[in-house]
Amino acid sequence: MDTTDLDQEACYRAVVTRDARFDGRFFGCVKTTGIYCRPVCPARTPRRENMIFVATAAAAEAAGFRACLRCRPETAPDMGAWRGTSNTVSRALSLIEAGALDAGSTEALADRLGVGERHLRRLFRQHLGAAPVSVAQTRRVLLAKALIQETDLPMAEVALAAGFGSVRRFNETFQALYDRPPGALRRRGERAPGAGVRLNLTYRAPYDWDGLIAALAARGDAVADGRWTHVLDPAVDGASGSVVVERGAADPGSGGRLAATVEASDLKALPGVLARVRRVFDLSADPEAIGRDLSADPLLAPLVRARPGLRLAGRWIDDGEDTPSDRAPKDWSAAMLARAENWRPWRAYAAAHLAAAGIEIEETRDAA
Fold this sequence. Notes:
This protein is an alpha+beta fold. The chain has helices at 8-17, 57-62, 87-97, 100-103, 106-113, 117-128, 132-150, 155-162, 167-178, 209-218, 234-237, 270-280, 287-294, 301-306, 334-340, 347-356, 361-367, and strands at residues 27-30, 35-37, 51-54, 66-67, 197-204, 222-224, 227-232, 241-247, 255-264. It has a five-stranded antiparallel sheet. It has a four-stranded mixed sheet with strand order 3-1-2-4. Helix 7 runs antiparallel to helix 8.
């Protein structure tokens, strides 16, 4: 298992103190139990010699560890070490999250990205510590685990919604990973009333919910009473129906959650719908890294302090070749673009901070 990119001792100190700042940044694998956990896991901390740390859940599962049933790694913020490091990996993960490897091959995925299969595998090993197929399986398992524990869907429908090709494969995977059938993981408790599949989507605080909702409303999205609604298009989403997103309850471990309720005529569409929701609401943002990097510029430092939880309103359909976080406005001057090189890979956040502060492009040209 490749753990060379992580400071193992620093990771252990974060686990000992249950430091929520590191939730989603790495996972701790316990050699004596075969379980991997979030840094904020409430269970008793294992001895240092019994723990190794990896950057992603996929790396932990590829090494043979299974997700903790107590801290639920599937609810950790999406904070993979690849963020801001590889545009190809970022695009590949977006496609995998939408189900690209549920029926397709790694070779087909590489073709869509315009790279060779071997190169794609090498990038995944470098940035995530696991192969693309392992990442895809981890995504399926963790989504299924969330559906099992947060909804009352029958197991056959969970298998379908999570992207498993068959119920048999679904059962075999969970038996191999958890040494028990998937139904044994279900927690009986109060479920939210109403139709549809309701899931909690975790984000890393701070999060400027009011600002993002205002931005979505300003561009013409359906927003009413603090809820965002989108009607599914079978041609785009693979199903008819709708998705409603609202602010959810606070998460003691990582800061907060959004509650997404999806009504879809075909549950196979669920992974793609959830991937688009995460993009629209910018749930994978790392506010600490964004703030640290942008604050190095004296123009942006006070703006970041004023709006630390600023998020980008993403597109439901986004076929762009570049990473949304790094897109620069087309009307920036050459001098501004030169200055913005120091803001990579967060140029889009820099532009959003400037716009939120009412600083015009002409003013930034003068400052540049």
